[in-house]
UniProtKB/TrEMBL annotation:
NCBIfam families the UniProt entry points to: ATPase_P-type
Keywords assigned by UniProt, alphabetized: Membrane, Translocase, Transmembrane, Transmembrane helix
Pfam family, one: E1-E2_ATPase
Top-level taxonomic group: Bacteria
Name used for this protein in its record: Cation-translocating P-type ATPase
Lineage: Bacteria, Bacillati, Actinomycetota, Actinomycetes, Kitasatosporales
Recorded topology in the membrane: Multi-pass membrane protein
The keyword Transmembrane helix belongs to this UniProt entry's keyword annotation: yes
Location(s) in or outside the cell: Cell membrane
Domain called P-type ATPase A: residue spans: 118-211
Sequence intervals crossing the membrane: 58-77, 83-100, 232-251, 271-290, 610-629, 641-662, 674-696, 708-728, 735-756, 768-788
PANTHER family registered for this protein in UniProt: CALCIUM-TRANSPORTING ATPASE (PTHR42861)
Organism per entry: Streptomyces gibsoniae
Amino acid sequence: MSHIDAGAELDPVHPAPLPGRARGLSAAEVAERVARGDVNDIPVRSSRSLGEIVRANVFTRFNAIIGVLWLIMLFVAPFQDSLFGYVIIANTGIGIIQEWRAKKTLDSLAVIGEARPTVRRDGVTAAIATSEIVLDDIIETGPGDKIVVDGVCVEADGLEIDESLLTGEADPVVKRAGAPVMSGSFVVAGSGAFRATKVGREAYAAQLAEEASRFTLVHSELRSGISTILKYVTWMMVPTAIGLVISQLVVKQSGFKNSLARTVGGIVPMVPEGLVLLTSVAFAIGVIRLGRKQVLVQELPAIEGLARVDTVCLDKTGTLTEGGMDVTELRPLQGADETYVRKVLGALGESDPRPNASLQAIIDAYPDSEEWRCTEALPFSSARKYSGASFSEGDGEASTWLLGAPDVLLGPDDPALTETERLNEQGLRVLLLARTSRELDDPRVKDGTRPTALVVLEQRLRPDAADTLRYFADQNVRAKVISGDNAVSVGAVAGKLGIAGEVMDARRLPENQAEMAKSLDKGTVFGRVTPQQKRDMVGALQSRGHTVAMTGDGVNDVLALKDADIGVSMGSGSEATRAVAQIVLLDNSFATLPSVVGEGRRVIGNITRVATLFLVKTVYSVLLAVLVVCWQVEYPFLPRHLTMLSTLTIGIPAFFLALAPNRERARPHFVRRVMWYSVPGGVMAAVATFVTYLIARHHYTGPGSLEAQTSAATLTLFLISMWVLAIVARPYTWWRVVLVAAMGVAFLFVLAVPALQHFFALKLVGVSIPWIAVGIAAVAAAALEFVWKWVDRRVPV
């Protein structure tokens, strides 16, 4: 009896022709279709092109505003007043380079995880790239395979296809020769082959698949929150800027050009241009870091999403255990002959061309009997929990056998169940071999079966699973083990990995979502879960406000992976699971998940810090402009002053803080949190700076007075901004202390060096006003400390 190995789709070419089956296209026919353009040539990309990256980073609303103001400064003011424009160019360049690096990382990983369907050409099979399929190709398929193009079934051996991702219908559809198959669906049981009838953009799910697998920078709480903040900033900025322009051109005490320069100096800091840039850079570097650990992030928000997860649903097989199994014992029942049982198991193993892990262990343990011939087969289905086959035995006898879960095939009082439960309690997996007198296509085929033997299998635990589960427990992330296996067996495996909690049989779970959610809160380990139940369980947890991650590698996990907030698939998993998951662990290491969580926490925590820095500047810039308009005085700063302040208190520190390690658990309500801190910080800075400016205006008169007034106001604003930075940089580490101190030393260096004093038009005059500026800054800093501590108690954690 011939047997096709489970990994056949990855073999380069089978040298032997395939008799009795469609031979597929010849090389000449393939070449003809390629020439005609009948190729599945959809450019499925995992990231943006270089042109799109450049456009996204360069052509932004705020870059346009800054660009216009920069051009004005180049014509009406000294070079140092146009420095802000060069800073924007440098920042944008950094953003483009980092995203391009992330793109290259993603594209190289996507090639590793790409599906390679098996096609027949010239009578032999070969695994090719999806983009190389041509019209009329014969494509072989088996459990877990994704249907990549539309077609018509030409061969079917118990073939069942799940079309729920396209139609919403949960039940698998049985396919026979002549039945249509649609791209975007996936095989749940059996095997077969189909002829491609629509390829490329004509395929039913082509556009859907392209969008679903595309790397994206949108649709995350963090980025949508930043967009919301920028929208509010724009509303505040436009009327304030108009008022500032009018007031400065009316005042004009120091000439038109100087007034125009000060107007621009008031508008530029209102724009939090670096915030979007640093968010993109932080995400891009996260992708690169994870890429080095063989993690493919198919949708960027998954980095952020996994950091917010509070419940992880783990599929046992392939996640907590390794894919392979070993047969440890064969126990004949009711006096069955062990030699005969071994022949049955050998024949059953060879009857399935695409065996799962359990059947593969049986194939390895029991060789095929050449005299037995399979006349009909029923492939394994995770919904049925058993497979079967009918044979013509060597002596002419006919028999039909089932192999599957004992508690599904046996009655509740059967004595074999007692033995099964005892083995399950040891964490062993048990399959029942039973003989049936009914036809395999009979809906009641399992009724009246005769138990013949128990096959005991040992699962291999992943060596890294216990440490990973311990990490989630330490982080207050609840683990729920969900498996199609016997609940007692799953509970024993979970116990070995340190997972404590109630073990439940999913067949006894209520169907009502609210009641199911209550049961899920009580239980930790669930066995005998159907694919549809996995999906329902994810929905029930989400209905209670949980952010749910689902891990899996089998076709029975696809629906749950699709519905979970974050789907995580193993690289060795089925094509269908890899297609719907947001994160693919290409090295199949469950231990990589903490790294993904860590990257998400780093991005969210650090961007929250950085956003506070940027928006404090925006708030004080807008409020200062309003105060200047109301008092009808000249704006206190030139662009060069605010460029220096922004660089020392925001630009340089923010870059380091955004990329620093951060293990804090992600907190919700990003916009609310940032605004609670930014608004009082900006108000304190603006009021204190303006008070110093008014006192300096009263004290300094005559030639050079405006420069002295500006210097005093700059000192106050710098000191308050440094205090904001010092608070945001907490908790302190050695490098954060050095970072804050270095920024202070750099400002003192500017005040001490005459050339820099002249370059930045910054010189403190006298003693009294500078010390008054320091005193006002100290009072504002103390008030800010008090207010932010009060906010800490008010803002939800």
